[in-house]
Every structure is written in structure tokens, then in C-alpha cells.
Amino acid sequence: MQRKASARWQGTAKEGAGTIATQSGTLKDTPFSFVARFGDGKGTNPEELIAAAHAGCFTMALSFMLNNAGFTADAIDTEAALTMDQVNGNWTITSIHLTTRARVPKIDAAKFAEVAANAKANCPVSRVLNANISMDAKLVG
Fold first, then answer.
1. For the CA atoms of the chain, what is the radius of gyration?
2. CB 76 within 8 A of CB 138
3. Mean per-residue pLDDT for 61-85?
4. Domains of the chain by range and CATH?
5. Which three-class secondary structure string do you get for the chain?
6. 115-121 contacts: CB < 8 A, separation 24 or more?
7. What is the pLDDT of residues 10-64, one digit of tens each?
8. pLDDT computed for residue 130 by the predictor
């Protein structure tokens, strides 16, 4: 399986601007810029997209692993908070914290924690990132 995305940039790093597109067309000419990446400018940025990908990947993996364990979630909501710091003078993604709240009938907290930890460790995006990945996963309802 292969997925594709593309980016185009014009101008200097700080004053220039770019666009991002995905194979599916979900993102098409989506703007990104220095101020969107390192400030609060409009548009997206690579780190926000990585956080979104991680939240989606983990949530789907958790659902899949719950199903394999005999459970079906009524709802799973996940937020991925990505931290980027300077390490030896280079911007580096140093951590991602996943916050998950799930409504899963007939599962106990210990089993849920086990399945969630497995999903965190084994979703494809977790496995590709060279960052500390922490998690706060709780059952609700």
C-alpha cells in the first residue's frame, strides 16, 4: 500500500507560503506558512497534520483491537498534542500525548487500559515516530 501527498513552496522560509495536497483530495491547495507553523497564522502545518494522523491512526487501531478482544466502542474521542522543541539547535518533535475517552460497553478498566496501551504501541503512526509518546486513556459513561 502506498499513499501520497505533495507540497509546493514559493518564496523565502519566513515570508513565503506553500500549499499541501493529498492523494484523496481531502486536502487540496491547503495553505501553510511559517506563521502557521511557528505562530498562530491561518493555514495548516506539518506538525498539526502529524498530530491529526496520529489521533486518527491510534483511534482506528484502538477500535480494531477492541473488536478483536470482543468489544465494540460506542464512541472513541482522541486528541494528539504534539510538542516540538529545539534539540541541539534543530527543531524536533519530542513528544506526542494522546488523550482518549472511550465509551465501551461491558469492558473493565484494566482490560481497556491493556488494549489502549497495545494500540498506542502498535498503530503505524506511533511506530514511525521517533518521539516520546504518552497517553491518558479513560472509559467514560
1. 17
2. no
3. 97
4. 5-38 (no CATH), 46-139 (3.30.300.20)
5. CCCCEEEEEECCCCCCEEEEEECCCCCCCEEEEHHHHHCCCCCECHHHHHHHHHHHHHHHHHHHHHHHCCCCCCEEEEEEEEEEEEECCEEEEEEEEEEEEEECCCCCHHHHHHHHHHHHHHCHHHHHCCCEEEEEEEECC
6. 115/62, 115/65, 115/66, 115/69, 115/71, 116/62, 118/65, 119/58, 119/61, 119/62, 119/64, 119/65, 120/58
7. 999 999 999 999 999 999 999 999 999 988 889 999 999 999 999 999 999 999 9
8. 81
Residue 141 pLDDT > 90: no
State the pLDDT at residue 131: 85
CA distance 33 to 20: 10
pLDDT score at 124: 95
The cell 475517552 sits on which residue?
101
